[in-house]
Design goal:
The protein is an alpha/beta fold. It has one domain: Rossmann fold (3-Layer(aba) Sandwich). Helices cover 34% and strands 24% of the residues. The strands form two sheets. Strands 1, 2, 3, 4, 7 and 8 form a six-stranded mixed beta sheet that branches. Strands 5-6 form a two-stranded antiparallel ribbon. Helix 3 packs parallel to helix 5. The longest helix is centred in the last third of the chain and has 21 residues. It is globular, with a radius of gyration of 25 Å.
């Protein structure tokens, strides 16, 4: 009786090492659900010094959630006013096997070309005083008015130059221009997430 029981246990443990390696292969063969989004480094098209790497990371983190997984790229958004994928974007997009590409550019609102065809703006703000001493546009002499900045962004599928989404969001400064732009990245992420949910 005991010999038969020990023989069964030995047989079971002898089979387990042979069966276990197959499990990970079965899992890896299953198609992954959700959408993968590559976020190119934000392009600064203004005369102001901006933390574009920090903005890029914030946008990628804000996009990630639910069925969306976003990753920050090493390649930059184009410096052209009309957003389009660059050769570097395309190569990295293919290497990382992303389903979508996000391009983002910060510009001065006053430089906006009225003849440029784009999706309707969400809103347009007025000039806002900067009173934060850490803001280079502010100072101890009192508030200094500066023009609002705009965040232009576009969403692309791999292998195409036609954007699925191409619009802009005006920055709403809250004293420090860098901090306000970080918050604007959250608004950009919300707009892109809304667009992806329709796909």
């Amino acid at each position: 009786m005991h010999r038969g029981f020990r023989f069964c246990l030995v047989s079971i443990f002898a089979v387990l090492p042979l069966a276990s390696p197959a499990a990970p292969q079965e899992l890896s063969s299953q198609p992954s659900s959700g959408k993968s989004v590559c976020v190119a480094v934000v392009n600064n098209h203004t005369a102001q010094s901006l933390f574009v790497e920090r903005m890029t990371e914030r946008l990628a983190r804000s996009l990630t959630g639910g069925k969306i997984k976003a990753v920050a790229l090493d390649s930059d958004t184009t410096g052209d006013r009309t957003l389009h994928p660059t050769v570097e974007n395309g190569a990295e997009l293919q290497r990382r096997e992303c389903d979508y590409l996000v391009l983002t550019q910060v510009t001065d609102a006053k430089d906006h070309n009225p003849t440029e065809l784009r999706s309707p703006d969400i809103s347009i703000g007025k000039r806002t005083p900067s009173v934060d001493a850490s803001d280079p546009m502010g100072g101890q002499s009192g508030p200094v008015y500066r023009d609002n900045l705009e965040v232009n962004f576009a969403l692309f599928r791999p292998g195409t130059q036609k954007a699925m989404l191409d619009t802009r969001i005006p920055d709403q400064p809250s004293g420090n221009v860098s901090d306000s732009l970080i918050q604007t990245m959250d608004r950009v992420a919300n707009r892109i997430s809304h667009e992806l949910k329709k796909k």
